[in-house]
Amino acid sequence: xxxxxxxxxxxxxxxxxxxxVAGATAPWVARGRVRGAHDTIxxxxxxxxxxxxxxxxxxxHLKEQGEAVELVAVSDIYRPRRExxxxxxxxxxxxxxxxxxxxxxxxxxxxIATPDHxxxxxxxxxxxAGKGMYIEKPLTHWRQIELTLRLVEAAQQTxxxxxxxxxxxxxxxxxxxxxxxxxxxxxxxxxxxxxxxxVGDWGERGMPVPDPNVRPxxxxxxxxxxxxxxxxxxxxxxxxxxxxxxxYAGGPVTDLFPHSLTPLVDIxxxxxxxxxxxxxxxxxxxxxxxxxxxxxxxxxxxxxNMTIVVMGTQGNDxxxxxxxxxxxxxxxxxxxEGTLTIAPSNRAIQFMPVRAPGVSRKPEEFPIQxxxxxxxxxxxxxxxxxxxxxxxxxxxxxxxxxxxxLQLAMWSHQRRRMARYDASTRRWEV
Length: 430
Ligand SMILES: NC(=O)c1ccc[n+]([C@@H]2O[C@H](COP(=O)([O-])OP(=O)(O)OC[C@H]3O[C@@H](n4cnc5c(N)ncnc54)[C@H](O)[C@@H]3O)[C@@H](O)[C@H]2O)c1
Hints:
- By secondary structure, the protein is α/β, with parallel strands linked by helices.
- The chain is 33% helix and 21% strand.
- The chain binds nicotinamide-adenine-dinucleotide (NAD).
């Protein structure tokens, strides 16, 4: 199988090399000052946009509830945003680059909430600096397949304490479903379906352009925004409304599907796919600027004789199955002996046996204890930092297994061909 690297004309190797060197030269870094249950954990925010604002609110909420945490620093390449967030949340230290923030000894944990193409590199830098991490989804940009794989390796090497921002993973329903699959309730897992349906362009039209006249300079570092994306002249829409553009985002497949696919991959114990087909389209929002699809469907095949299907559009919000979490269609998990899904009451997992000769199981329901809670992701991360142990909610390796499917699907869509992956050589082609 031929090895295909990331997109031909434009991707810089510099950042990849820098990141690889960081991983190679820092196999273990002492993880800062936090040693016990009562030590205060300093949180630094990389990116000060709308998602970071939500995270700052969650961390402040936990602090108000008595968790020993401080919001100590914020960095953003756009001055008005970093200053606004620092003011709003009383954050004492403000940096223009994430590297300065990572050098701050009072920062124990970072929250990475920048556009997609920065997450992976900033996570590698944070690992090398020995910080704990809350990395927003998607783990990487859709083009960065090598980076996804590199992150898995680096996370293992550095033993970093990190969670990826698929908050659906805080829903105990999925852990209960996973346990049922593991105990053999559905026989051999065969097939998983999920999706993400909602109405709304998720902010492209709404993504505000607060200052149409802003230009690169002391207030806005355009080079830093571009990172390893194709070099282009400054464009105010690209900066503020980056979700519309393929260089920085992927549309629903990478923006929304991580929320649906990550739990399903975990429930099924799906390792790495060997073939993925994806097809997307702009069916709903044909804006002049929009490059990314608004509708996307994918099929992933696994060598362990399993299939995953993910569907979605941003033009209709009927979830088909019971909905848990915004827009997320609950998974249907099929095996040789039965099927698991969420009961119509939304309070239990439903087991339905297959109607096959020799299968005598009865339908059953298993009450669900709890629901999705994004704050719980943070609580878990802080607990793990104090106890110096891996996170349980959404570790990098799990997020990467879902992300690779989404990346291959996007490449398949781009090339109008099936994408293939060989886990033994870590090579892919499309
Ligand atoms: N888990 C969820 O439910 C959820 C919800 C919304 C967004 N997100 C994710 O959060 C991320 C951020 O989304 P957003 O809506 O906050 O976007 P945003 O545009 O509001 O904010 C991004 C911020 O990052 C800054 N930035 C850009 N490049 C940077 C760099 N190199 N270093 C530091 N700062 C940089 C920008 O100036 C901007 O202030 C996205 O990847 C998105 O997928 C997740």
